[in-house]
Amino acid sequence: MNTRTICFTNNKGGSGKSTTCANLAYELSAAGKKVLMVDGDMQLNLSLSFFEEDEVLAMAENKKNLYYAIKDKDDLTDYIVKTEYDNLDLIPSSTLMSQIEYELFTMMQRELVLKKCLKKVKESGKYDYILIDAPPTLGTWVINILCASDDVIVPVEASPWGLFGLANMFEFIASLEEMTDARVLGVLITKVDERKNYYRQTMEVLDSYESINVFKSVIHVDSMIEWAQDASKPVAVFKKNTRSALEFRELAKELMRL
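User: That's the sequence. What structure does it adopt?
Assistant: Structure tokens below.
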């Protein structure tokens, strides 16, 4: 089995990275794919999408989380936690990830630490997909995530500020081409509200990037997403046929074709 590693990154916060990573992971697992999620953000949002807050904090406080694995340059196999869903596992994060740049600064080949930690997991062939949720920054840790990835999905919010910094994001990824083979698989437009013009404006700007694929699937504003997050469940589990659940399902189908 060839394991495909995909990261979700955008240096602007609020773009829907964690939401997309969580719900796409669930839909891929529901389609029979084996999926490992890696929560790379100190905000713990990906972990909170599947576990109650007290469980997430407990995982963040013990040493079986991503921070300590990176700090100790450890094989990530022993850090994997099963979710309640078939085919869907997680490597949890920690609030200590706020210190990860400092930890990496002292290491040799600091950009490749995550790639090496994931090596055995990836080579085991246990997973079809490894999905990594990146923090909204452009630093050594995000370089680590990009170096460990095959593909990059850039979620972009359909709002006046949604495209802010997107050019910087693409330039940052392009600057790493000698270090990583990761390619931008596509831009995913999130938080679409048809009553406003922002979606059309966003599409017009993205059309100017000739070499960038834009996913046909889009994710509309849906209050059920927030309710599902509050319940620590994927939106399709919380309410099966709500609009966003169907959209994430279509996104999973589109991804599997790429």
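The domain at 4-253 is CATH 3.40.50.300 (Rossmann fold).
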